[in-house]
What we know:
- This protein is an all-alpha fold.
- It has one domain.
- The chain contains 6 helices and no strands.
- It is flat, with a radius of gyration of 19 Å.
Amino acid sequence: MKRLVVAAVVIVAYSWWAAGVHPFTALSYELVAIPSLLAVTGLAAMGAFSRRRVDITNYCRLRASNVSLSSIAPWLVVLLCAVVLEGVGLALGGRSQSVPTLSTTVDHLLVTRLERSVLYVAWLLVGANSLWRLWRQRQPGSH
């Protein structure tokens, strides 16, 4: 539990710092690259990219065994609607007040440092999720 608290504090502090850096600078790119490289390195160290990892292949097959076109159709409709709304918004000049696009919504979420930090934490947690799941799968007795 103590490790989880320390990890949470590190993630929040890192996100707060990264959210305060001026965008499109070398430092801002490095602050995105560091966790990305750590995630790829962690996945590689656990053998996620190995062709000989039968347990990972079986895990992915098991998770995908119930997937069908009808089960993902609602998500495809949502994705299609988002793409269409984005296209309409861009066709209207990109700053339409009447057509809420993903880009204008994200623009509103990136106004303050706190909001940028929350999105950065979410991004880090999504990336860490694959590491966590693979690590848990490798633990004895977790199968």
